Amino acid sequence: MEKMPVGIGLLGCGNVGSALVRLLDKGDIKKMLEIKAIAVNDLTKKRPDFVHLDLLSDDPQSVITRDDVQIVVELIGGIEPAKSLILKALNAGKSVISGNKELLANHGMELANAANKAGVDLLYEASVAGAIPLVRLLRESLAGEEIVRVLGIVNGTTNYILTQMTEFGIDFKNALGQAQNLGYAERDPEADIEGMDAASKASILASIAFGADVVFDDVFREGITGLETYDISYATKMGYVVKLLAIIEMVEGPRSSTESGGTRKLSVRVHPALVSADHPLASVRGPFNAIFIEGEAAGDLMLYGKGAGGAPTASAVLGDILDAAHNISFGASSRNLKRETVDFAPVNDITTRYYLALDVIDEPGVLAEVAKVFGMNKVSISSMEQVETNEGARLVFFTHVALEKNLQATKRDLGNLSVVKKVGSIIRILDGGQE
Amino acid sequence: MEKMPVGIGLLGCGNVGSALVRLLDKGDIKKMLEIKAIAVNDLTKKRPDFVHLDLLSDDPQSVITRDDVQIVVELIGGIEPAKSLILKALNAGKSVISGNKELLANHGMELANAANKAGVDLLYEASVAGAIPLVRLLRESLAGEEIVRVLGIVNGTTNYILTQMTEFGIDFKNALGQAQNLGYAERDPEADIEGMDAASKASILASIAFGADVVFDDVFREGITGLETYDISYATKMGYVVKLLAIIEMVEGPRSSTESGGTRKLSVRVHPALVSADHPLASVRGPFNAIFIEGEAAGDLMLYGKGAGGAPTASAVLGDILDAAHNISFGASSRNLKRETVDFAPVNDITTRYYLALDVIDEPGVLAEVAKVFGMNKVSISSMEQVETNEGARLVFFTHVALEKNLQATKRDLGNLSVVKKVGSIIRILDGGQE
After folding, report:
1. Is A201 a catalytic residue?
2. Of A383, A386, B14, B327, which has the highest C-beta tally within 10 A?
3. Are B19 and A132 an interchain contact pair (Cβ–Cβ within 8 Å)?
């Protein structure tokens, strides 16, 4: 490390960018890394003191093409111009660090191919779960490991909302309002609460953990907007916590289906799930994130930490920069990730246990009618509880393991019963885990 | 990766070694890595099928010196002959992977210096917490991070015992018996229950996280043998869980001490601690391990996983082997760790809150006498509860933040009171955390 500092070109200087500038301004790091230029949209905007104004430029192309820039850090976000700028940097032989989940979730393979071709690094630790070093874990520590399943709490906003609903019994709307007041949720919260942010991260996780080419549109997605306070409290009563999970696993196609007869396919999905209260993921509270990895030899591993915020994200970016700088000084590059095309398991093919809530009219014989629908659709009931409500009765079911397709048919048929006033939440139950 | 496989020489083929042989026998890995020879003590011992007998040798020197061995994996354990063999391998320019905590905790600096001098890798992910990739995390992902504190549950045996005591209200002896029956504890459990295993791991963790030269003897250590069932249940009642923690942090020397006036020193210690029930470490149950890292920019991070067992440990060793092989193919080496001599904070200098249990005779005026001793020693009481026992009364105190030295003086003076029948457990309370 007695060499010249490695030159950094920064694209974007917002929350994460300025936190990074601050981290790079410290003793030991300063000797190894030096920011040569920073591309910003608005040269006149007020910046923190530690951002040297003479480094700023409103021409990102010039930042990339500087001879003294060896590592380009992209913190602009969005698809364009980020994508073109990154491709240009890679093609010019620069290593690239990005925290841009939207871009990586949609064009990750194209970018990875460009990096492989140029023999440089493309690192994106900050794109999935902020400060949590899971990309390096999956790429390096678990490089020889057969990954069985990856479960992630990868969206801090929804985890905060669900934690508040669970611990204080408040409803979704109030919990969302709190999250917005605390700055955990945007004024337009759709990307978080509808699971889109988590789905982007799930596609990146799937690419790394299973070496598969997975894009945003391959991810099955359900958000948390439909969850009622009573869903959460029944879950608690039965020893579960409701979490919005990203789930990535190889599943067997159903044997009865001729089209997919027993072959293994990748299931990548984001939806609320009931997690057993003694599962490590259940203890992940508030805006924190966690990734739970089930490996063939390593067993269960979990990484927990801050999924967002300027300093934590900048810390992840810095880890990547140091990695790229190390490789540059040795003329090496990080291990490339193969990305293969895979078959995806339709969500209808998964099998799991379910929670299902049903508002019905309060009359004798209703349960028999309802139970018949479950039976006809080959969904077996594990437990049932009936509760009086103001307007009638509510039936809460836990099923045995069933095929999603059959559960959806049950849902449809229940909705057609005249005694059923409303089919409420259907929540999948996470099986297995550490026991 | 189209090159010749990298040659591996294995020293030791027990539980972890044979699990490793199995992992190396798989498709993709097999093309990259090849075991050339395995040194064992007993050539006649029965081995699993997948261990090829023609690879076995009872001469470890010959395994190390083979020209076709580029990476030596040491899984013998103990100080000698492991140390001499590793030094010989490093000096011969071979990369070395070791999971030998005893050796690394006592001679880590000498080995690291030899590796640095030879420009090869010395990797030991498996030495601290089995499958949990914390060494790589600290060395690479957090290379630019200022670490504030590291907390570890690094001994599965004691964590299993404490979990059983907490969840089933059984006493230490019974919980230990269960752990022995399940194979979590040795027949001679001293190294685990007296905290020696955890202290070895704490010294390695401290070396990595703080770049300090820390050996086993620098670690302050208390085991869990003195904990009573009632300690655990009071803790539960007050919202805490008892964990055996490795704690590594920079602390300020007390200002009043002329000798160490306000300078920062490293505190490395292993002792039971009361952990708030909503702290992520509290949810680490049974034989699992976890490392909780508080970073300046990254915030709180936790890694959770299996701390022992053949397959998980072999998985960590395999991660290291792939790392070393990657570096060999590029002529690079892992980032070396500087290890500097540091001043250690005597345990008497730490400040924390305490739990303290006291058996006293059941008479008026006893509490006043006891409280006076606390006051004289500048230890302020936060809460007190008196419980009738069969033989008298028990007083359970929670203190405000106090200096360890003052707490120890309190303990001594309480022991001299005629009304005190027994000074029971004194348990430090973990402060701070994620809130």
Report:
1. yes
2. B327
3. no
